[in-house]
Amino acid sequence: MKIRVYYEDTDVGGVVYHSNYLKFCDRARNQLFFDADRSLIFEEGILVVKHIDADYLKTAKFGDILEVNTTLLEIKNASFCLLQKIFRGDEKIFEMKIDIVFIDFGGNIAKIPLQEKAFLSGLS
Amino acid sequence: MKIRVYYEDTDVGGVVYHSNYLKFCDRARNQLFFDADRSLIFEEGILVVKHIDADYLKTAKFGDILEVNTTLLEIKNASFCLLQKIFRGDEKIFEMKIDIVFIDFGGNIAKIPLQEKAFLSGLS
Amino acid sequence: MKIRVYYEDTDVGGVVYHSNYLKFCDRARNQLFFDADRSLIFEEGILVVKHIDADYLKTAKFGDILEVNTTLLEIKNASFCLLQKIFRGDEKIFEMKIDIVFIDFGGNIAKIPLQEKAFLSGLS
Amino acid sequence: MKIRVYYEDTDVGGVVYHSNYLKFCDRARNQLFFDADRSLIFEEGILVVKHIDADYLKTAKFGDILEVNTTLLEIKNASFCLLQKIFRGDEKIFEMKIDIVFIDFGGNIAKIPLQEKAFLSGLS
């Protein structure tokens, strides 16, 4: 998943605005589903971010080409944890662990549908 | 409706990113409803932007305090047109005409619910 | 220039938030420069949006693949006008005319540097 | 620091997009400086986010009024750590620890200017 840094991603400091790295990682997660021809709209509920632990290692700049790398660290019945790294060439500029939980439309934690769980398990 | 320009609103050029003026105007439209204790989630459909004609007169910068001014230019059965101006002090920095149309959940143009139409008519 | 609609681009109405179409068009303008190995950071000044006239024809949804098409309508010494269209397959969903002006770092309108003018003239 | 959730902040899931909580916290940090009549543009360098550890406790929705609460956890010569909590009424919906470092324009870690350090120390 390659991402170009456009004008919209930068701030007055001349670098990528800090919350946009989270967007880039989300794009990569979305793209995993798109690439596998899977929908991210589920009948049983939605995926919700629960926890993020992020290290900003280098700053990305306008025009940079970044690559996001996603691996599964752990999957349970109702949640999973991903490790996402952003590289510029060989240089790692960002890394985060993200915990995502499945909740039903009543807002309660619920089991990840089996097909999704099987798909996610294949990401490790 | 006063709006402060935060870091998130700027770009590498040191000024407010051009599409964010549209967000500021949208906040002001939202706020008109909130101030009148009205919901923007309707049972009959949604409001959709149809056309925008925008003049960028001056550039806003990080830290500026802006004020958005909204007036109704015209209202019809299924659509209305607003004039929105953004000021920094006495200086007008942005102005746009925006046409908004009401569509039902099937995606068809529909009559604006009567109560909303009455409310919008009061904005002129 | 193909653009995928990600979660970040949508709003609670289930469609692409209206100001994001301007971002998509900006990405396409950025990409024209990147594809030609040209910088968008100039020594003499910056490009600033002056006027936008935009028609929202259809709504784009999460997961859609869009294509942005950019042509030059007119170029003068200090400004130029582009026509940008966004398609989903064969269907045109958005179209805008955008006027962009070159200003120096003192904030005054200035001549577009000759090399940039030559490059932009080639877009028609 | 009160923040209203506008249309722009939501996503197709009907709730606030996860990276926007970071924007809300940044607004609150900006506002601390504005309220004290201090600039966030320094002569010696810029403040850069180094690490974020964030817990998403509840989801915020369109129209919600949120309040961001910021306290200093620790300050060193070149960096500081803040605790930021977002509340909706009495209910805590988000909490994060954020480490921010001062870097000079050459990109190297540098001492926080004394006046800024004194100001930040007052936030605890």
Q: Secondary structure elements and their pairing?
A:
Four copies of one chain form a homotetramer.
Chain A: E1 2-4, H1 20-35, E2 46-56, E3 65-75, E4 79-88, E5 91-103, H2 114-121
Antiparallel strand pairs in A: 1-3, 2-5, 3-4, 4-5
Which short descriptors sum up this protein?
homotetramer, 124 residues, alpha+beta, Thiol Ester Dehydrase, Chain A, 2 helices, 5 strands, 39% strand, elongated
Describe the model:
- The structure is a homotetramer.
- By secondary structure, chain A is of the alpha+beta class.
- The first copy, chain A, has one domain (about 1-120): Thiol Ester Dehydrase, Chain A, CATH 3.10.129.
- Chain A has 2 helices and 5 strands; from the N terminus they run βαββββα.
- Chain A has helices spanning about 20-35, 115-120, and strands at about 1-5, 45-55, 65-75, 80-90, 90-105.
- Chain A has a 5-stranded antiparallel β-sheet with strand order 1-3-4-5-2.
- In chain A, strand 4 (about 80-90) and strand 5 (about 90-105) form a beta hairpin.
- At the A-B interface, loops of A face loops of B.
